[in-house]
Amino acid sequence: MIKVEHLSKRYGALTVLKDVNAEIRKGEVVSIIGPSGTGKSTFLRCLNLLDSPTSGSIVIDGVDILAPGADVPAVRQKMNMVFQSFNLFAHLSVLENLTLGPIKLRGLTAAKAGEKAMELLRLVGLAEKANSFPEELSGGQKQRVAIARCLAMEPEIILFDEPTSALDPTMVSEVLSVIRRLAKDGMTMAIVTHEMDFARDVSNRVFYMDEGVIYEEGPPEQLFGDPRRPRTRAFINRIRSYQCHIASRDFDFYAMNGEIEAFCEKQFIPRKGRDDLLALVEEVVQLHAPQLASAALELSIDYSEKTGSLQLLVKSAGEARNLLEGSQEEEDIGLLLIRNLCEATEYGYVDGNNRLAFTLRRR
Ligand code: ADP
Ligand code: MG
Q1: CB distance 77 to ligand 1 below 6 Å
Q2: What does the pLDDT look like over 244-259, one tens digit per residue?
Q3: Is the distance from CB of 172 to CB of 164 less than 8 angstroms?
């Protein structure tokens, strides 16, 4: 239904969308997630021509909507948008908000538009507010009116840009329920949202946007349950990182320990976890001591706010050598300590770097 190829968007020197490629099929619900400022809103605005892309193509039902002479109002009617901030007309009643577009743009009679509007207000549970004005409604009610107004234009696709972000937490679910209902009725939708549980159970597919592209996409079970790429994983598991560069044997170990403690405090990591982590870092640096004469170490401590897991990642340049294997004759005491502290360890050699990953045991 929608096919986007090599879409890019620049604002002056700022490239927001680099190369977005996407397809949305009829009846599909696609959630778009990702950190703030990664171009999710820009992408939706480009789709329904509120913003003009710098290059690329958008084809809807076989029609190239970026071609000169494209019928912009027709595109916007076909692909209507619901905004975070509702954008209702404050001086019009709820009913008039719903009938204005159909009368002016679709040529409906006032009677016909009114009838249809009441039907839609019933659908979103607000028939009794038909004669109220937007200022008399709660945020959740306003957003439901905005959705009904969008439906009044009989769109084939609805784009939602963070429809619940401006709402009090108590009103989020009434709006999500309406969107769920539309999904059940087979409406094609693209929804930018931070409501991960909602995205997980309402969508057929999820796009994770980052670095100006759709960085990863997949069915919700896979994208939320087993994300493949590092940035997706960091976002989904809400990973907070501390990084440290150890340039030589003479580096300031006490200063690093102080920083790790501060990091743990900030992330509310329990004391036991922090002590285990500090012990692990010490053993791991020891293990690398011979290397430190010639090559630096990159340490990264990754803490998942979601799962509470703590990982230490160590990267060092040089020939491939798995330090976890130790020497043949005797089991190294340091390695025993490390094994004791970790529930898993992993070794890999990538691009001339030895990489070790240690996952701390939970206590
Ligand atoms: P998201 O919705 O993912 O938070 P946006 O699409 O709103 O991200 O914005 C992406 C980037 O583009 C941001 O850095 C934002 O400041 C910039 N941006 C958005 N709109 C404009 C604009 N009209 N002019 C200049 N920069 C903009
Ligand atoms: Mg946005």
Answers
A1: no
A2: 999 988 899 999 999 9
A3: yes
Q: How far is the centre of ligand 1, averaged over its atoms, from the C-alpha of 13 (Å)? A: 12
Does residue 193 line the site of ligand 1, with CB under 6 A?
A: no
**Beta strand pairing call for 2-11 and 55-60:** antiparallel
Q: How far apart are CA 240 and CA 27, in angstroms?
A: 37
Three-class SS state of 205:
strand
Cα of 303 vs centre of ligand 2, distance in Å, is 26
Instruction: Please check whether residue 301 is in contact with residue 289, taking contact to mean a CB–CB distance below 8 angstroms.
Output: no
d(CA 270, ligand 2 centre) in Å: 35
Per-residue pLDDT tens digits for 220-250: 999 999 999 999 999 999 999 999 999 988 8
Say how many Å lie between the CA of residue 43 and the centre of ligand 1: 10
The CA–CA distances, whole Å, from 351 to 224, 261, 291, 314, 315 equal 29, 31, 18, 14, 11
Query: Three-state SS for 206?
Result: strand
Does residue 288 register a pLDDT over 80?
yes
Give the pLDDT confidence score for residue 331 in this predicted structure: 67
Which atom of ligand 1 lies nearest, measured to the CA of 161? Answer: 2
Phi, psi at 176, each rounded to 5°: -60, -35
Using DSSP, state whether 204 is helix, strand or coil.
coil
pTM of the model: 0.84
Q: In what order do the strands lie in the sheet with 14-24?
A: 14-24, 2-11, 55-60, 63-64
